[in-house]
Amino acid sequence: MTDILQSDMNQALMMDGNAVAGTLSEVFAMEMTTSLAECVSCGKRSEMGGLLAFIQTPGFVLRCPACKDIVLRVVVTPDAYYLDARGALYLRLVRQ
Amino acid sequence: MANPFISKGFFGRRRQPDAADRLPPGQYLTPDFPVLSAGPTPRITLDDWTFTIGGLAREPFTWNWKEFTGLPAQTFTVDIHCVTKWSKLDTRWKGVSLELLLEHVDLDPKAGFVTATCYGGYTTNLPLPDIVNGQAFVAYEYDGQPLLPEHGGPARLVVPHLYFWKSAKWVNGLQFMEFDRRGFWESLGYHDRGDPWKEQRYQGD
Amino acid sequence: MRTTLEWQIATIQSIQVETSTVKTFTLAVPSWMPHRAGQHYDIRLTAPDGYQAQRSYSIASEPERQGVIDLTVEWLEDGEVSSYLHEGLTTGDQLEVRGPIGGYFVWEASMNGPLLLIAGGSGIVPLMSMIRHRAKTGSQVPTRLLYSVRTPEDVIYDEELRQRPAFRDGLEIFYTFTRSQPAGWTGYARRIDRQMLSEVVEPFGKEPLVYVCGPTLLVESVANQLVQIDIPPARIRNERFGPTGGTQ
Fold first, then answer.
1. From the list A13, A19, A32, which residue is nearest C56 (CB)?
2. Could you give the ipTM of this predicted complex?
């Protein structure tokens, strides 16, 4: 078990939607970690705080915790936010 | 938009003065080899691994692992530059030059661009002139050891003169095309070519 | 309710050494607003040439403590921001912060329980905010903390955690020391596993609220084990901290 745990720095670096909550709140102008996303691939509905996050990359990639497919991608450039939500059948943002 | 608040005593990663001429604009030196991935590490066994060149070519060509590693290989020592601003100098790789791989196919003259495809679904697009003349190779060893899965093993593309997101990890093929088609990061704001010396980070740069 | 978060300049009011690699920074925040236990603040550093680095740190203090926030920060060996915070900042220095952030990994006394808090290393920080908030509200919700650390010297908030069970308000604390144990220790001395979880959760039945926080690999492992002992996934909240310092 130890060997498996130590062998993959990629997995050790993985985080979750909580880690990108600040940036998501910039893009959506609201707190997003309790917003729901339904995965296009497997149908699982997750709160965005529960999505797996790969954040070391040129952009953020949020993946379904069940099937690991991409739900959301975000890139922040000096001028713009790019958002790809094709991996979500929908995003459900609760009105305040 | 200038940020007026400067953190007292913070300098971040420093540019080494003696490496300054080897660092493209906006880059910082790192002694580490950061792991940057968009997803979990694909686990591919060498028995299952293949590499295919196809698309705008008379016929596609596929190698398995044994065939691929049986091709004449070279050792390359190159500097690499990531768009997230870290650079690493004198990285040592062993692999097969794309020149050699292209000898096995008959490319259509209309082919002007290539998409690198990968296990795990990642893609990146490159102009054909950027992958010929010894500018690109498929590497399966890093620093004298088999390439680790978290760094793209069994094999990855290495195109050191462009930002490292073009050096696709877990590469399994090249598809040649007439027209450019944006890959994973290029479709979300990153530059189609990505020359670090011209700081081509984002679309429109 | 504010819809956009703005960066603001906080001032360090005090710095508390928790362990040899962990410090708590008490920050006076000009536009302080009550947070929810489990939330975090982002800290952003800017160099003179414009280079920026940004990290998130969980709030350790309870929202009942007004005007200030405690951010507990573990020093990581190649940590760009944690190194800066640990080396050379003193009372009166300023930091650019944004928050509070987060809605998923939060617990409020009104959410009740029973409450199972599982921490690995610095994962204790947001759970400490929950424990402190719980005490301040006078809640008696049955609560168990399972805290995994390598050695006794790695326990963050050691003094405070020793004292709290004596208040007899329904909080129990279980430690597991994975590398070295205190003299005469008879408690857990291994990585969290399914057996340990079953034992700790036993009085809580099948429907506790569970919060798991710590290095990603620990959270992944515990998440799997909780599923194996039939805790409903809808009752579990995770927060992954990425790799921990000094695991190797």
1. A19
2. 0.87
> For C146-173, what is the mean pLDDT?
96
pTM value is 0.90
pLDDT digits (tens, 9 = 90+) for B144-154: 999 999 999 99
User: Which of B34, B83, B187 minimises the CB distance to A58?
Assistant: B83
Measured between beta carbons, which residues in chain C are less than 8 angstroms from residue A95? Answer: none
Residues C135 and C94 in one domain: no
Q: Within this chain, do residues C167 and C223 fall inside the same structural domain, yes or no?
A: yes
Which domain does C193 fall in, by range?
109-240
- Average pLDDT on B104-109 reads 96
Instruction: For residues C86 and C134, state if they share a domain.
Output: no
- Please report the pLDDT score of residue A6 as a whole number: 40
* pLDDT band at A12; cut points 50, 70, 90: confident
- In chain B, the residue whose alpha carbon lies closest to the alpha carbon of C81 is B12
Which chain A residue has the Cα nearest residue C4? A29
**Which chains are within 8 Å of B by 3+ CB pairs?**
A, C
On whether both C42 and C95 belong to a single domain, the answer is: yes
Domain closes at, from C101, C124, C141? C101
Here the tokens at position B161 are 């003169």
Mean pLDDT in residue range B110-126: 97
